[in-house]
């Protein structure tokens, strides 16, 4: 008798707001046989997010949610996620802060990637702040999402060296490259 091989993948959603290089990277990762996730839906708060193109390209459902009314937006997202039987959420350049109430519904199941070595530089403009402070290193962090901004349990971090020649642009590019390695590794760590 033929035996079915392969593990059941966790039904996941990726939330974006912008370019979506992490989204693309996670989609490619999800297609690997040993990946623990399968991406069922892309959620964006921004209808102009470039990353939305990956929905068509990879035939993944998408939903654009207007966050003018935050509470209503989250309610709408929760409805979609339950309908799609989503068990895991990856925030990938998602620039909205999720409420306590939302996070409670997916406790320990929401990951975020942040472009700094947390707890340093929570919030925005991380690369500019690292350069301004003449830091020797920067990097990225994957952490669990809790109700405080960029403060949940750290799962993995990766460092990059800052050189004298670095600009916010070059540093962002260097860190993104590391992010694309780190995010899949952190997902494996959490889900396997
Ligand atoms: C990434 O650098 C990610 O770490 C950062 O936004 C960028 C999104 O790039 N996230 C945050 O700043 C969250 N606070 P991408 O759209 O190309 O994946």
Q: Mind sketching the topology for me?
A:
Layout: E1 10-16, H1 21-30, E2 37-44, H2 53-58, E3 61-64, H3 70-83, E4 88-91, H4 100-105, E5 110-114, H5 126-132, E6 137-144, E7 154-161, H6 168-191
Bound molecules: glycinamide ribonucleotide.
Textual characterization of the structure:
The chain is of the alpha/beta class. The chain folds into two domains: 1-107, Rossmann fold; 113-192, Formyl transferase, N-terminal domain (Rossmann fold). The protein has six helices and seven strands. Strands 3-2-1-4-5-6-7 form a seven-stranded mixed β-sheet, covered by helices on one side. The radius of gyration is 17 Å and the shape is globular. The structure holds glycinamide ribonucleotide.
Top keywords for this entry?
192 residues, alpha/beta, Rossmann fold, 6 helices, globular, binds glycinamide ribonucleotide
